[in-house]
Amino acid sequence: MSDGADTHRAGEAMDMRSRRGVDNDGASLRSRIARLAGAKETGVFLALVVMCIFLSVTTDGFLTTVNLLNVGRQISLLGIMAIGMTFVLISGEIDLSVGSTYALAGLSAGMLIVLGWGLFPALVLGLMCGAGIGVINGLLSTYGRLPSLIATLGMLSIVRGTALLMTGGKPVTVNERNGADPDTLAAFEAMGQGYLFGAIPMQLVFFAAVAALGWLLLSRTAFGFRVFAVGGSAKAARVSGIHVQTVKIWAFVIMGVLAALAGILSMAFLPSGQAGRTGLGLELDVIAAVVVGGASLAGGIGTVLGTVLGVLIIGVLRNGLVLLGVSPFTQEVMIGLVIIVAVAIDKWSTRSRSA
Amino acid sequence: MSQQPIVELRNITKAYPGVVAMDGVSIAFRPGEVHAVIGENGAGKSTMMHVLAGEVQPNSGSILVDGEETSFPTPLASQAQGIRIVFQELSLCQNLTVGENVLLGPFGAQRALSLLNRNRAARAAAGTLAELGLADLHTDTPLASLTVAQQQLVEIARAISQKVRVLVLDEPNSALSPRESQRLFDIVQRLRDQGVTVIYVSHHLEEVLGLADRISVMRDGHMITSFDNTPEVTVDRLVTHMVGRKVDKAEQYSLSAQAGTARDEIALEVKNMIVPGAIRDLDFKLSRGEILGVAGLPDSGKDMLADAIFGLVPRDGAVEIGGILLQPGKPSHSLAAGISYIPADRRGAGALLSMTVAENTISSALGAFARLGFLRRRPIRDTAAEYARKLDTRIASLGQKVETLSGGNQQKVILGRGLVTGPRILILHEPTRGIDVGAKAEIYSILKSLAADGMAILMISSELPEVMLHSSRVLVLANGRLSGQLTGADITEEAIMSLATKHEREEAA
Question: Helix (H, G, I), strand (E, B), or coil: what is residue A133?
Fold first, then answer.
């Protein structure tokens, strides 16, 4: 986590510190505690800790390495996309097309491997798919002057339709029988099903890497700064010489590429998919996770750490409900409640803080 | 005058975490008086208005209406007593017509399925507008087609379209031209003659002296004094009460002789500028070391000038800096060429409100604070601290969010941001709008010392004293063209107004 004065999050913490009359430059224990209490993620983090303690006590299966790594694998694809969505939401936009991008990119990469392409070109083409969709989303929402809600709603349908046309609606399964090169297939499957050091699922490794890079980009670079500025006030950003459209388009491109990456990893894990089913409705799960993590749909607010915690909450909740033997129907209700309660707590506490 | 007050606040205290906005404030408003409330930003005026509006609940103290103790738990409770508030920020529906906006209150109160009699409603709205002397505003005009100044008058019309006993105007004329301000004063006087109590919150002390029957001064959450307005009351005395010390006249309104002296070097040249709907044809030159004031009525085109030069709106014609032609539509190019711009809309276009003081300070010069795209935190903090010190910005910490600062300090942060890029040309639009007297004086002295160091400053303002007293040369715009320019001793209020209205008088003749 940040320990400096100049990032968004730590800035807020410093607010708390000065209000309590602690020396500005001191790094005393009190100021550290105050900073933690002021950090936006603290509430989400505490909720997660409470959930974990509850599940550790009430179930035998939760607090085991195998189960925790399993949870880690299950949330990874959602998490990778949520990191991208964090950029888009902070920039003041939204992307509803990510579930379709996930399907199209995964199916494209899978089909190319079945056609006998090598792993690397297939991956690049799949990711380019996502980048291209991101560029279109970005252009429509900036120079096209469409609200991104509408632009990406249209793209949701167009991209899904393209995937259906491309596959003829039939399932795509990547295996040797369908024509994949055995070495390529092995490498592809290792990406989705393999383990690092024989224990950590590769998907989780990808998620961790994406989260780390995302955090670096968002809170440490000039680009990340611009994303916050553009989402906070596009007008003020323009006066500051920031090219608002370019920043937003890049946020959409990052989102598109990460959605594609998640789609390809899903294909590598299963390893099959169907244009009519893969990633259907996924965009809402992704947005929910980011919002639970404290990002604002109005733009300008959000952190990568918050998003990771939001993803973990949803993952742990699903896992816990299964372990507790709650029926899948009830699970859906519970998850909806958690989304509402989490965001409500955040709103209410923010209002009392700013009043 | 031992009349019973219509509304009285007794010992009202309102504390927020870390700040006491109102500390035992008592004030009485008598029927049919114009009661001005003045004070610097942060003095507690706006908290008091919010208490009156029922939007903020005091921690202690009591509210009396007609001598009876009451409370305003909701805005509706306050409105039921006939108290109407017109806040500085417009709260009108841009998608409706003038008439519909005027009648928003009565319409909103009708039952969901009751039919609206539009003809009768239009007549009622027209009646209200006529009562205010605003008969020239048609009820079926879309609100969005009016100027901000006209909208402000519509907002007042809406407030009095229902039963009104106390009308509170919060900085009502910060967006009005002198002519429209005069209209507002007429309205205020007409309402007073009808027995309405008008509470008038303003930074314009001369106006207050001309308009108010009684004046109350607040400072740091306290009610300092209330007195009847008599000819002996002067602006100096008001300022002394407001800031709690005697402000040197020279400090507050220093003489125009000190307001920069032009050097021979041309810093910026505007040739044949055309901005659709605002500027028809404009040429002028700005020299190093001068403070060039730009005055004009709201429809003169002056409000688009800064946006057009900086490249925020499409324009025709040329803007040249040292032989380089600025590309229109590219603020980043203007910045790189050495222009810094401080826009009028401080909260919208100026500051990144949700970001910190440090972040705002360096946001125009990101490249200089990044290595390989990564922000370097120590230089950022050092620079932000340096400018906070230079401009005497009062902040709790560099990590404080700009939205929590007072207007004057926000403006200093934005000014600091403008200076970090090391500009040679500074363009300011309404540089002190809504800022208290003390901070204003500080900003003027900063501008003067910048000009003395050779900065070319273009200051566009609707406040005549600001333009008159702090410019070495004044351009007056009218109807999208240069109507004339004034220098030295010729810069007088009469001369500016005469040039600003020349076109209208010619048309009338």
Answer: helix
